[in-house]
Design brief:
InterPro entries: HemX. It contains ten helices and no strands. With about 325 residues, the chain is mainly alpha-helical. The protein folds into three domains: about 80 residues; about 80 residues; about 120 residues, no CATH class.
């Protein structure tokens, strides 16, 4: 098969256009790269601006937060001061309330008809005299002074005509009867009996010793300084010096007991009498005399030194209750 010259392919004529297209695409790519770079730079600059603005906002928020914290602390201090002021005001209000209550009570007492006139003065005087009598008997043991104070109180109370105080006069009469029934002061009785015992014990000692010496057999009078006969259960002072020392000790203990009785010191009084009984063991010549003297000591130790009145102070308590009502 032969090929004619007309059948040969014609050369490609659009080659220049294909080169222009490639350059155009290259230009587009370059423009796109430049645009992308410019857009990236713009975006990056915006991001930096946003970061700066965000940082500024954070700093502003931090400053504002610090200011709010400072303001909060200031408010807390003000609240604390206000709380303290409220507490002080509350205390002052309580004090004012208490003073108002006291004033109201004072006004009520002043408005009480029993607080006016001669009756109020007589009641005050009666209460004062009853208090004096009660204290004189309880503290000083002055029975006569208490009787005088109660007698004066009874005289003052008789001048009140109000029948509401009739039971008070009866109570005062019973209390005065109990005081009169006591007789002498128990302390005076105890001291008097103690003096009688001291005279009974210390005075006859030397006479008994002299009598026993004169009535002693010849062998005791001859050998008394060499031989001593004593009971086995106690040591009796036989020599004159020993008996003088024992007698001085007994007198000293009796004096201490008398001083304790003056003070109404029951414990000291009984302890002094107990020590006096120890000296009696050395002075008593015989068991019968010793038993009698010890019984006397026990009787003395059992004596009361203060008056005992169970109803003491009942009139004063009743008067105060009536005035309180």
């Amino acid at each position: 098969m032969s090929i004619s010259p007309d059948d040969t392919p014609a050369p490609d004529t659009p080659t220049p256009r294909r080169g222009r297209n490639a350059g155009l695409w290259l230009l587009v790519l370059v423009l796109l790269a430049i645009g992308s770079y410019a857009a990236w730079r713009r975006w990056h600059a915006r991001e930096q601006d946003d970061a700066v603005a965000m940082r500024q906002q954070i700093d502003a928020l931090s400053e504002r937060l610090n200011a709010m914290r400072t303001e909060q602390r200031s408010h807390a201090r003000r609240l604390q001061q206000a709380d303290s002021l409220n507490r002080v005001l509350r205390d002052e209000l309580d004090g004012i309330t208490q003073r108002a209550a006291l004033l109201e009570a004072s006004v009520e007492k002043l408005a009480d008809p029993d607080r006016h006139g001669a009756q109020a003065l007589r009641l005050d005087e009666t209460e004062l005299l009853l208090t004096l009598g009660d204290q004189r008997l309880r503290i000083a043991g002055d029975l006569d002074g208490a009787r005088r104070a109660y007698a004066l109180a009874a005289g003052v109370l008789e001048g009140i005509d109000d029948p509401a105080y009739l039971s008070l006069r009866q109570t005062l009469l019973q209390e005065r009867t109990a005081l009169d029934a006591l007789g002498a002061d128990p302390k005076v009785k105890a001291i008097a009996q103690l003096d009688v015992f001291a005279q009974d014990v210390t005075a006859p000692v030397e006479r008994e010793v002299a009598a026993q010496t004169s009535l002693a057999p010849w062998w005791r009078r001859a050998f008394g300084n060499l031989i001593q006969v004593q009971p086995t259960d106690r040591a009796v002072a036989v020599q004159a010096a020993d008996r003088a020392a024992a007698l001085a000790g007994l007198q000293l203990e009796i004096s201490l007991a008398r001083a304790a009785a003056e003070r109404r010191d029951v414990a000291g009084y009984r302890e002094a009498l107990r020590r006096a009984g120890v000296w009696l063991h050395r002075l008593a010549p015989g068991p019968a005399v010793l038993a009698r003297q010890r019984a006397q000591l026990q009787t003395l130790a059992a004596l009361p030194l203060s008056p005992a009145v169970p109803t003491l102070g009942s009139t004063l308590q009743q008067l105060r209750q009536m005035r309180a009502r």
